[in-house]
Design a protein that fits this description.
This protein has about 350 residues and is an alpha+beta fold. The chain has three domains: about 50 residues; about 240 residues, no CATH class; about 30 residues. About 20% of the residues lie in helices and about 35% in strands. It contains six helices and 15 strands. Strands 5, 6, 7, 8, 9, 10, 11, 12, 13, 14 and 15 form an eleven-stranded mixed β-sheet that branches. β5 and β6 form a beta hairpin.
């Protein structure tokens, strides 16, 4: 039985066929012509692309030694359900995430021992100062917010992170274009040339962080990155003195998708930076194979600042190692509309000026 070969146009995706007049393969939809040898090479490249293979070794980490966790107490927030760990001298005050009272429920148990910890380098006063600096230069921030925004609670919390290490072999296929424009006395012409671009290579990833707590928004934690892992030390309970530690509720196995997403995005960005000389470059397929993928458990230092203004709560997070602070701020609606109207007027004036110059030409 004969086999019917079908080829798709790399430019528009339409089905192409052999044209006996030109002796080339031609797309009836966009009119692009291809040499048979070139198209066969393109098809072979597509068929040889591998699938993603991003597997990890996520066997349990180290366990607590006998008596090592005896000085730790567990606290549970009845509002958000967060389980927080502190030393035996930590007072049960307020949940660092939602501000509700937390209740000491008993001896800490049931979680893996962290492999690493990055100790706090910045204190509570540094967090207050960073918050005040965060207000500066915000033109749409209500003028009275800085004076009236009341800080309800500032807590130093060690946030659980899973750190992923792996060697990645990657192959990425891009569709790239070059466009040429010219004119004669009658017409303006545009010629777009399409290219298949392949990139292969290897990258090593170390300590790719994934937040292991559902109470902390992943985007918020990623916003205060990076943490400098060179300052990480082997975990000891002494580092928890005077601070709280969030107990992870997302294990390493359920953090893999986020780790893969971050690795894939970083790989695509690194490879795309090597594709130069084209007007556009769009990734069409990515194949990544991971080797020696392992996950470790670490605690990273974060200051949580809960504030209240106009009966509404605002939460800010500061990297306890670098001082980078992020958080949402209210918008002065009156100032916003003035800014928007001014921006619209400016864009309109620029557009009118360009149109007028073109008319003169």
């Amino acid at each position: 039985m004969s086999e019917l070969m079908e080829y798709k146009c790399p430019c528009c995706g339409g089905e192409i066929a052999f044209d006996p007049n030109s002796q080339k393969l031609q797309c009836p939809y966009c009119g692009t012509e291809f040499e048979a040898e070139a198209l066969a090479s393109y098809d072979e490249a597509l068929n040889n692309m591998q699938e993603d293979d991003m597997q990890w070794e996520t066997s349990p980490g180290s366990q607590w030694d006998n008596g090592e966790a005896d000085g730790l107490k567990a606290y549970v927030c009845k509002s958000c359900g967060g389980e927080i760990v502190g030393d035996e001298n930590t007072a049960a005050t307020a949940c660092p995430y939602c501000g509700s009272p937390v209740v000491m429920t008993g001896q800490f148990s049931g979680a893996l021992k962290p492999d690493y910890v990055i100790p706090f380098k910045l204190d509570k006063e540094a967090a207050k100062k960073a918050l005040n600096e965060h207000y500066k230069g915000k033109r749409l921030l209500p003028k009275i917010f800085k004076d009236q925004n009341h800080i309800d609670e500032i807590k130093g919390v060690y946030v659980p992170f899973w750190l992923f290490d792996a060697d990645a072999d990657a192959e990425i296929r891009y569709k790239a274009t070059k466009t040429r424009f010219w004119s004669d006395s009658r017409y303006n012409y545009t010629e777009t040339s399409y290219f298949l671009v392949m990139r292969e290579g290897a990258l090593a990833f170390e300590h790719v962080p994934v937040d292991g707590s559902t109470k902390m928004e992943a985007e918020l934690m990623e916003s205060i990155e990076p943490f400098d892992f060179s300052e990480a030390v082997d975990f000891k309970t002494a580092y928890l003195a005077g601070y709280m530690a969030d107990k992870y509720d997302v294990d390493a196995e359920h953090s893999i998708d986020r780790a893969n997403e971050r690795i894939k995005k970083s790989t695509e960005q690194a490879f795309a930076s090597t594709v130069i000389g084209y007007d556009t470059c769009i990734p069409e397929s990515t194949a990544i194979q991971l080797n020696n993928g392992k996950a470790k458990y670490a605690l990273y230092p974060v200051w949580i600042l809960n504030t209240t203004w106009n009966d509404q709560k605002y939460t800010f997070a500061m990297n306890g190692q670098t001082g980078k602070l992020v958080g949402d701020l209210p918008v002065d609606k009156s100032a916003y509309w003035k800014w928007l109207i001014g921006l619209t007027a400016l864009i309109g004036a620029v557009a009118f000026g360009i149109s007028y110059l073109l008319w003169l030409l």
